């Protein structure tokens, strides 16, 4: 097949391209430039990543094309990111980036190039039966990225390959090292792609206004002043601006609630404070991999953030196209704007944006 691989400059996508080349496919690499603002400062690694992608492509023996999707990214992902933060929620732009850029703009571009399939270095797998495709977790549970891919649909999965989804990360690095890929030991990127390693609050400061207001404890006593609700997230411990102890208590303070109507930030002491634990949630913008919502009520497992263990839950009837999920055990710091993603064992069913 003719396969266009999204080469990011990292080891995972490089090994994905290498494995496809070894399997005899006609492989082309494509480097996506998704961010242009301040891409010349110390935090943005786009130039370094392009150099690494080109070096890996050279060793593998494939052509590399660089494509600029910055305009699409700003319109489809970043604008939504800012709207969500301005509304007091904590969005997950990686979920939207996969749905709108990597598996839409990139996929469309690859199809125009005559590709049969696209491939990425995500840790996930695709299953197929006679009538449909399934999205499965990556076999390396510590690296599984199906959470970020839960918005993919049948048409997208029909065109997608995940060559490293059946491998452990250590095996991926071993393959890269033995093949002489120059990025075999490159550390994994962390955080949101357009922010890089910079302090998050420093980045938001450039785009969102500060609207100070009171920081209250659960009894309504004012402990200090926040700089703007957009700059905090549920479960946050560091950077709140409230001392670690009060009236002899030694527990740390955590953000428990953001009251938009009154511009109040509510904090509580202790990681497992009752205000941080939720048994149920509602979500909107439901997206189902199969194209159909599971029957309700029905038992599944779910996670409300990446790198969280699946937890038993029941999908309830909402009658409005949204999601209502009831967990068997309380969940910590359920955060509006993040995604709830449902599973049946290894099969990712889909999910929605927590409200």
Characterise the protein shown here.
The model has no long low-confidence stretch (mean pLDDT 92). This protein has a six-stranded antiparallel β-barrel. The chain has a five-stranded parallel sheet with strand order 3-2-1-4-7, sandwiched between helices. α1 runs parallel beside α2 and α1 (11-22) packs across α6. α1 (11-22) links the parallel β1 and β2. It has 355 residues and is α/β, with parallel strands linked by helices. The protein contains seven helices and 17 strands.
CATH fold annotation of the largest domain: Rossmann fold
Give me the strand/helix succession: EHEHEHHEEEHEHHEEEEEEEEEE
The biggest sheet, with number of strands, parallel, antiparallel or mixed sense and barrel status, is:
6 strands, antiparallel, barrel
Mean pLDDT score: 92
Distance between the termini: 42 Å
Give me the secondary-structure category: alpha/beta
- The share of residues in extended strands comes to 25-35%
Radius of gyration: 22 Å
Overall number of structural domains = 3
As residue ranges, the low-confidence spans are none
What would the principal axes of the Cα set say about the shape? globular
How does CATH name the architecture of the largest domain?
3-Layer(aba) Sandwich
Strand elements, count: 17
* The CATH top-level class label of the largest domain: Alpha Beta
Determine the fraction of residues in helical runs and give it as a percent range: 10-25%
Within CATH, the superfamily of the largest domain carries the name HUPs
List the helices and strands and how they pair.
Blueprint: E1 2-6, H1 11-22, E2 26-33, H2 46-60, E3 63-68, H3 70-86, H4 93-112, E4 117-119, E5 124-128, E6 133-137, H5 154-157, E7 160-161, H6 169-179, H7 200-205, E8 213-216, E9 222-226, E10 253-259, E11 264-269, E12 277-288, E13 298-303, E14 311-316, E15 323-332, E16 339-344, E17 347-354
Parallel strand pairs: 1-2, 1-4, 2-3, 4-7, 8-11
Antiparallel strand pairs: 5-6, 6-17, 8-9, 10-11, 12-15, 12-17, 13-14, 13-16, 14-15, 16-17
């Amino acid at each position: 097949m003719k396969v266009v691989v999204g080469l990011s400059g990292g080891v995972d996508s490089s090994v994905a391209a290498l494995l496809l080349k070894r399997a005899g496919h006609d492989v082309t690499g494509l480097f996506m430039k998704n961010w242009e603002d301040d891409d010349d400062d110390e935090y943005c690694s786009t130039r370094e990543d392009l150099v690494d992608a080109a070096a890996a492509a050279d060793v593998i023996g494939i052509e590399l094309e660089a494509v600029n999707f910055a305009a699409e990214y700003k319109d489809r992902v970043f604008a939504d990111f800012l709207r969500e933060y301005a509304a007091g929620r904590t969005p997950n732009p990686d979920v939207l980036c996969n749905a709108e850029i990597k598996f839409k703009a990139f996929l469309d571009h690859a199809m125009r190039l005559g590709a049969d399939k696209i491939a990425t270095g995500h840790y996930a797998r695709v299953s197929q039966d006679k009538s449909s495709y399934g999205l499965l977790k990556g076999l390396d549970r510590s690296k599984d990225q199906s959470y970020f891919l839960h918005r993919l649909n049948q048409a997208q999965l029909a065109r997608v390959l995940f060559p490293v989804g059946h491998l452990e990360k250590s095996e991926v690095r071993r393959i890269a090292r033995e093949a002489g890929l120059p990025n075999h030991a490159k550390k994994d990127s962390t955080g949101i792609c357009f922010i890089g390693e910079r302090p998050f609050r420093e980045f938001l400061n450039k785009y969102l206004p500060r609207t100070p207001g009171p920081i209250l404890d659960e009894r309504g006593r004012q402990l200090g002043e926040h700089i703007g609700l957009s700059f905090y997230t549920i479960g946050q411990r560091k950077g709140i601006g409230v001392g670690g102890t009060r009236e002899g208590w030694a527990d740390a303070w955590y953000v428990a609630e953001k009251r938009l109507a009154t511009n109040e930030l509510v904090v509580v002491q202790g990681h497992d404070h009752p205000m941080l634990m939720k048994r149920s949630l509602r979500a909107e913008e439901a997206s189902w991999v199969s194209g159909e919502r599971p029957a309700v009520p029905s038992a599944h497992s779910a996670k409300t953030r990446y790198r969280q263990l699946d937890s038993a839950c029941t999908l309830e009837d909402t009658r409005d196209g949204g999601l209502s999920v009831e967990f068997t055990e309380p969940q910590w710091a359920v955060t509006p704007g993040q995604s709830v993603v449902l599973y049946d064992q290894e099969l990712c069913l889909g999910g929605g944006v927590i409200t």
